User: What shape does this take?
Amino acid sequence: MSALDEPLKKLVGDRTAKVLADSLKLRTTGDLLYHFPRRYAERGELTSLDELEVDEHVTVVARIEKVTLIPFRQRRGDRLEVVVTDGRGRLTLTFFNQGWREKELRPGARGLFAGKVGVFQRTRQLANPDYQLLDADAESGAAEKFAGRLIPVYPASAQAPSWKISQCVEMALDSLAATGWEGVGEPLPEGLRADRELLPLPEALERIHRPRNQADVVMARSRLRWDEAFVLQVALARRRATDSALPAVARVAPADGLLDAFDARLPFTLTDGQRKVTAEIFADLAREHPMHRLLQGEVGSGKTMVGLRAMLAVVDTGGQAAMLAPTEVLAQQHHRSITEMMGDLAEGGMLGGSDVGTKVVLLTGSMGTAARRQALLDLVTGEAGIVVGTHALIEDKVQFHDLGLVVVDEQHRFGVEQRDALRNKGKQPPHLLVMTATPIPRTVAMTVFGDLETSVLDQLPSGRSPIASHVVPALEKPHFLARAWERVREEVGKGHQAYVVCPRIGDEDEPPGGKAKRKSAKEREDLEDLDDEGADAEERRPPLAVLDVAAQLRDGPLAGLRVEILHGRMQPDAKDEVMRRFAAGEVDVLVATTVIEVGVNVPNSTAMVIMDADRFGVSQLHQLRGRVGRGSAPGLCLLVSDMPAGSAARARLDAVAGTLDGFELSRIDLEQRREGDVLGQAQSGVKSSLKVLSVLQDEETIAAAREEAVRLVSDDPALARHPDLAAALESLLDEDRADYLEKG
Assistant: This one.
């Protein structure tokens, strides 16, 4: 066992180890040493207090400006208010019934102060923060400890502030240094490390935690960044090598078959981009190894057409194709548009169907028993060449005659297990085409989708119209919102249609027990002491709901227009009927949730109003906007928000309004969401497995690591000559992540 795998309790004791495990998921010496400082404070440098985010656990270096002890009015006890400053901004530290701290928290003293940033009476504060004074006369002696070098500031928690983590790190480094770092492997091959002039791993870990200067930090991060990029790319290179060895049925479409018949009926010419991407896909299908290709493209670039032609080519070879969609609305929309485009070619074996046609079936979880039984029969007998469905496709009861191609639409909506279950239904591994309308930066494609070949479709079909986007500041300028509804009426007056999108369905979708967790009696008591009038910090109103907004529009600014609703809780038949009527022009305005985000294609829709737009992500807004401007008339997208100018949320909306470039927006989105766990299924919103590597900023390192990884894996696939690298790979790819890459 590596020295880095030693349980922390051996080093820091049971109690501290439990705190680190429970609050920060640090369980081994390696976990601790790879918990890198978030930043470094210089001796005498103060933290910029204006940049603190509410609800974030922070550690700040600041100077005490004012200390006030305030007795409670209604009961025994007191609160100590300490105002700290960086010379420009201020932050209040509030201690309840701890008046004795007044003796050590003196004006003029500097210290590290840690806690969760809250807001009271529009002022940021830390309640009962932990702290460590840095002045020479402080009892802690921290000044001498930190004198002459940088102070590491770690990602921390309420139970484990930054300096306590620092103390544990010091113990770990000293312990390993005493043994000469025995048992700590070197994952980077010696030649690579020498060529790139990278530090040995022990030295990199020492310098990142105990830097003498910023140059130490730069050198340490450069080495550790290479570790992450290289180990990840080796994992992906091994996966690609394994896939290339699997058998699959080559699918080469014969002439004068279903594909040629379909192409002959197309009322438009394919774009150059569609032809280029199709050629790449058909070349993959012709090989005797399964295709693993990612097709990414702009909203409305014609990915569905490319995917359909690939499915038709597979059907021409006697195989079947399955398209997996994330929602019933999208599955129904795909099924409807595919059957409409194919005409009698989608009625193979039926009266009036084409001789070269096939049957296209829909399979969703809420279908009636008879329809479901017939669809399952058509699949197992091979009668149906194409099936479009939701998660229902992966159930055990679903069997195929000869599944040759799986097309996954909007892949980010699916877990890997779901995709894998469908791929296992083929006699041999089927070819896989993954499609996404969320453009992905190249570096992300090399990491998150590094085991897939990538095709990019960035050319819009001719006839698509530009979309004008504007932010509507509803609170600052209410007349702008009134004008938005006038614009909707104007578009309907021209014979067009509009969407109104809301983040919520209605009151019935609130969680049981109310909107927010109730404060404890102690928390309420403390708040009452802070504010005798009981005025808590202003809470944001609930998000706007489809049911409420639709009722208001029918009775108000859109009175007289045909306004309908669409949301995920409606019965499938009802949803399908609303979409059919909207597509037929029988509905003027559709008030909906994000069920219309992808795949919905109604060319006559020219306007979209997104309510509470700041509650949606950048990519989601871009997807929603792509539902308008799909015909010959220009599109209009209005982003309604209460957020003030200058706020981060408003800046995000301004970015969306400022460009239609999905690739640029994807970079903005990734920067704001942070990078998530690029190996995990969620790919966002979870603790990142990448500590120092940025998939946006480190493109050069990632590309170089990919080349080195491919070279090494081709020479030593089992990593037999690189045991330390194999161990690092095993450590990075814990059971869940290894399973993720294995299933892909």
User: Anything to note?
Assistant: The longest strand covers residues 57-71. The domain at 258-444 is CATH 3.40.50.300 (Rossmann fold). Confidence is low (pLDDT under 50) at residues 136-144, 510-539, 676-688, 740-744. DSSP finds 25 helices and 21 strands in the chain.
